[in-house]
Amino acid sequence: MAPWTEISQPRQLPTWLKSFSWPFTIVALLLLYAWAMAGVEFNPLLIFQYGGKFFELMGRMWPPDFSPLPHYWRPLFQTLQMAILGTFFGTLMALPLVVFGSQLVVRSAWVYWPVRLLMNVLRTIPDLLYAVLFVVAMGFGPIAGVGALSFFACAIIAKLTSESADNINPKPIEAIEATGANKLQVIRYAVIPQILPAFLDHTLYVFELNVRIATVMGYVGAGGIGAQLTTALEWRNYPQVMAIVLMIFATVLLIDLIANRIRDALVHGVIFPRALRWLGLGVVAGLILWSASSLEVNLDRLIAGVGYFNNLVGAMRDPNFEYFELAVQRMIQSLQIALVGTTISFLLSVPVGFLAARSHTGVPIPLALVFKQVPNTIRAFPELILAIFFIATFGPGALPGVLAIAIHSIGMLGKFNAEIVEKIRKEPVEAIQATGASRLQVFRYAILPQVLPEFLALFIYRLEINVRAASVLGIVGAGGIGSLIVEAQGLRDWGIVGVCLMVIIPVVMVIDFFSARVRKRLIEG
Amino acid sequence: MKNILSIKNLSVVYPGVRPVTALENVNLDVSAGEFVVVAGVSGSGKSTLLRAINRLTENDRARVTGSIAFEGKDVLKASRRELRELRSYIGFIFQEYNVVERLPISTNALTGTLATLGTWRSLWARFPKDRRESAHRALERVGIPLPRHSDRAGRLSGGQKQRVGIARALMQKPRLILADEPVASLDPITANLVMNIFKKINEEESITTIINLHDPVLTFKYGKRIVGLKQGRIIYDKPIAAINRETFEEDIYGTVDGD
Predict the structure, then answer these.
(1) Domain containing B136 — which CATH number?
(2) What does the pLDDT look like over B205-230, one tens digit per residue?
(3) B144 at A interface, C-beta within 8 A
(4) Of A23-27, A145-149, A348-352, which range is least confident?
(5) In A128, A344, A397, A442, which residue has its Cα 20 to 30 A from A299's Cα atom?
(6) Inter-axis angle of helices A274-294 and A69-100, nearest 10
(7) CA A340, CA A43: separation in Å to the nearest integer?
């Protein structure tokens, strides 16, 4: 026996355990998926059997009826105004959180840990749940929508920007400190220049999200075009439903297009000329003023809003514990919906990612450009609208939720998978080619090892997002804990909503925590 | 002596709005067992020359004309399958090491044997035992101690990554080694250690070796035959003993003092 096989290798499982770990993992995964699929009543046969109905439904929606169009413009503008104001207030609220949650600025752990905890709690509450809460506190109407979108925007901007702030280069900070500058000067000259592009990028990203969410907020009574959509659905006026959906789709696509242009320029460090910056600032200020005046947002109402918030907290102060067990059961179903939906989406988006990548894979560039548009198009359909369509096809239950998540997530997963494939290093690919390996071998040894950990990290990240989504899909009837929230809203029993929050917040926080750790290990190896 | 490599009228053009001619009418014969250093400044065409020999220039969409005969077979006319076979006989070493950082060191070395491993087996990384053992031997030979072989390649320093790159080439049992600026990213001491590995391989197994170097010190220390490239043309091709170092340096690198 050669000597090198006998030297012990540290940091590894014992061999007997190692030989078990693979089969064990596979069996565990199979059991997990069997459990989740049973929980959401996922049945491929059912999909084939009733899938035809989906197209039949689409047929009944065609041609779309645009005759009430004049009545749709106002709610559509209202939707945009809600998104603009929500993003604006969210940004204002996020700034102090970012500053006091950063170790760069505040050196005392007594300050930044509580701020970070608050940031994490805010982020656990899903978008539509904010909407339900604000409708409870402030009554029906777009003001409730603005409130909900502000909190949602604040949570994401604060989180993403603090992450960027943690990753900035500390060397310029030292250099400015070494010149004898004070704390504010250091922030102004070493911190802000480094995080400003990321901050603007996150803000625009959140604006894109807010536009999507604002289009469906009307479903729970928080203003915008979603109210018209709900009415048309209730009357089963499918041609009108299609008209509204197409309008939403076009709006979201347009906003994405503009925002993406600007974000690309920001990320690539394009320096905008001075005049253009002032113009941009002017346009943004104008949009905010237009939205505020049109939605009649003023200082009095903002102050009154704080009072409303008190009412809400008061209403939920004594949670209705009779519903605790039911809430846990429904939450588990939400987790199952998220797991099955994300997995299907992942399986569909891996090929999309490779086909849409413009390098290394040998896909002709025109074809790649076509496939690049697939995720962008899918992303423009909000999950809830997909869920509504699938409910109309399969009836209420968990399955429509699974399918809505599976389809909608292709948008992000396909896009990012393609980016992962595009940014792999080409040197190892050449090295393996140079050994005379076949195309498949080059893929297996040079491409796959580079992309796989990133694919998995992305999958887990999307799972994290989808757990939130799955906990509100029930609001439209697609299973999970959201169904309990609408029931509570119908009964006007805010104690049940309190219990739901008590279940959702810790579960989402725990998932976020483990997801972050697993992703870190995957990426850093 | 028999020529292992015979290059005739080789020209390489990178197309684009302004096409760049990287090599023009290059002729070069290398006989088995030689140790050739290709000298020249950045942009003189050294990399293009080596990359053309195993057709990596295809990755850069370069237009290659002329002929390159490796062991009598024309590389430029080879089919995909023949090209893969030719490549498996030629070990290529890169300036940036080009190891797959997420794979274990031993697997990186084993990738040198992919051309002769069935597709199905290679999908599951089922490398035969004798290959795994010879990978350990190759890695130890280039100075990577056994306890590290299961580490990820990303954890290694630059010099160690280059050793893995050499081990991968050795696993191919190459008849020709092409090394493109293998030590340009390394400190002088490590650079000498790595150059010594090439020298030893050439002397012990008489594997024909062609190395690109831009550093005149290393060129004269290790080269046995020196080919000087300037602006895509060969302007020198002599055994080391026949070269006047001073005029050579002036011709190849220009005035070193800068005045």
Answers:
(1) 3.40.50.300
(2) 999 999 999 999 999 999 999 999 99
(3) no
(4) A23-27
(5) A128
(6) 120
(7) 11
Looking at the complex, does the CB of residue A446 fall below 8 Å from at least one CB of chain B?
A: yes
Q: Is A433 in Cβ contact with B100 (below 8 Å)?
A: no
Q: Is the pLDDT of residue A2 over 50?
A: no
Q: Is residue B259 included in any domain, yes or no?
A: no
pLDDT greater than 50 at residue A199: yes
B162 touches chain A (CB under 8 A): no
Q: Is residue B258 part of a domain?
A: no
Is A12 near chain B, with CB under 8 Å? yes
In this model, does residue A91 exceed pLDDT 90? yes
Domain around B69:
3-253
* Chain B hits for A364, Cβ within 8 Å: none
Find where tokens 């789709």 sit: A249
The answer to whether the Cβ–Cβ distance between B96 and A427 falls below 8 Å is yes
The type of residue at B236 is Y
Render pLDDT for A246-277 as a digit per residue (tens, 0 to 9): 999 999 989 988 998 888 888 776 777 888 88
Where chain B has pLDDT below 70, the residues are 1, 255-259
Which pLDDT score is estimated for B256? Answer: 52
CB proximity under 8 Å: A 397-426 to B: 426
User: Which of B115, B139, B91 has the alpha carbon at shortest distance from A431?
Assistant: B91
**A21: burial class by Cβ within 10 Å (0-12, 13-18, 19+)?**
exposed
Taking residue A111's Cβ as centre, other Cβ atoms within 10 Å add up to 15
CB contact under 8 A, A431 and B98: yes
Q: Which of B48, B83, B111, B116 to mutate to test the interface with A (most CBs of A within 10 A)?
A: B111
User: CATH top-level class for A25-62+319-525?
Assistant: mainly alpha
Write the single-letter amino acid at B228.
Answer: G
Strands B208-213 and B225-230: unpaired
Across the interface, of A12, A434, A438, the residue whose CB is closest to B92 is A434
**Domain span(s) for CATH 1.10.3720.10 in chain A:** 25-62+319-525, 68-303
- Would you call A9 and B147 a contact, using CB atoms and an 8 Å cutoff? yes
B114 in contact with A at a CB cutoff of 8 Å?
yes
Inter-residue contact B160 to B144 (CB < 8 Å):
yes
Q: Does B99 touch chain A (CB under 8 A)?
A: yes
pLDDT of residue A174: 67
**Residue A295 and residue A81 in contact, taking contact as beta carbons nearer than 8 Å:** yes
Look-up: residue for tokens 């899909």? A473
Residue A434 with chain B: CB contacts under 8 Å: 54, 56, 87, 90, 92
Rounded Cα gap, residues B190 and B187, in angstroms: 5
Cβ contact, residue pair B100, A428, below 8 Å: yes
Within a domain: residue B86? yes
Mean pLDDT confidence for A462-475: 92
| Span A270-317, pLDDT tens digits | 777 888 888 989 999 999 999 988 888 777 777 777 777 776 777 677
Nearest to A250 by CA among A93, A435, A113, A76: A76
Answer whether A169 touches B (CB < 8 Å): no
A482-505 residue pLDDT tens? 999 888 888 888 888 889 988 999
H or E element in which residue A401 lies? helix A398-422
Under CATH, what is the fold of the domain A68-303? MetI-like fold (1.10.3720)
Q: Is the pLDDT of residue A4 over 60?
A: no
A409 CA to chain B: closest CA distance, Å?
Answer: 27
Q: Which residues of A touch B104 (CB under 8 A)?
A: none
Tell me which residue in A7, A426, A441 faces B146 most closely, judged by beta carbons: A7
Assigned domain for B94 exists = yes
